[in-house]
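The protein record passed on for reference:
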Amino acid sequence: MTVTKVHIINSVSNHPGLLKTRFAQVVESLLDIIKKTLEKGEDVLISGFGKFCVKEKGDGEGKIPGLGVT
């Protein structure tokens, strides 16, 4: 399942006491922190959730999966 920012915001903002606009700001801030940390070459580990890291790919030829086309 693909989860988007909008999906996260809509799901959590349905809880009483949370304003959708405020929660949207929190999500944007969190993603900005993750992005800036990754740009510095550092990994981001959110315990109980997951690890974000940048991986370098080689300059090899691209392929279309399942078709064997390069």
About this structure: The two ends are 28 Å apart (CA to CA). The mean pLDDT is 79. The first helix runs from residue 5 to 13. Residues 5-52 form one domain.
